[in-house]
Amino acid sequence: MLRAHSLDQVKTGFAGVLACAHAKGNSLDILFLRAEGKNYILQGGDIDGRLKTLFDALRIPRDANELPARAEPEPDENPLFCLLENDDLISEVRVNTDRLLSLPLKKVIGKHDVYLQIAVRLNTTIPSSYSWAFE
Q1: Pick from 104, 71, 78, 81: which is nearest to 4 by CA?
Q2: How far does CA 108 lie from the centroid of its chain?
Q3: Which positions ≥6 away from 45 have C-beta within 8 Å?
Q4: Which of 64, 107, 115, 116 is found 20 to 30 A from 40 (Cα to Cα)?
């Protein structure tokens, strides 16, 4: 079970694909499709709050309170990989918003449905056996 009582217990089951020691100054290019009627950036919640929620979801949890109450990892999810070790590794963000018209395998779109397409640009700072694939 992922629930834990200390920060160390939470972090032992997770691994960041981008770690502080190997990558700084990474950028995210986000296509943000929303089910809202008009394409106003502030409709349905401010974009800053939505991006903060997204960044939190991409990083390793800081404490047990950030995990769902009954979260259980699958057998092959140890460690459970997160994109970021820490959200401080993001230094640039570009967001394009538009209207969500349909979703795969879903006939009706709910008012809170979104579709995100995220491109990550990596800036490795220390060449290593792990960073060669990103160069």
Answers
A1: 71
A2: 25
A3: none
A4: 107
Look at residues 127, 126, 100 and name the one whose alpha carbon lies nearest to residue 111. Answer: 100
* Coarse DSSP helix, strand, coil percentages of the chain, rounded to the nearest 5 percent: 20, 30, 50
Q: Which two tokens stand for residue 133?
A: 């694939």
The per-residue pLDDT for range 76-122, each reduced to its tens digit, is 888 888 888 888 888 889 999 888 888 888 888 888 888 999 998 87
Q: What is the pLDDT of residues 11-43, one digit of tens each?
A: 567 877 777 656 667 889 999 988 876 555 555
Let me know: does 122 contact 23? Beta carbons within 8 Å.
Answer: yes
Closest CA relative to residue 84, chosen from 4, 1, 32, 11:
11
Quote the pTM value.
Answer: 0.71
Mean pLDDT, the chain, whole residue set: 76
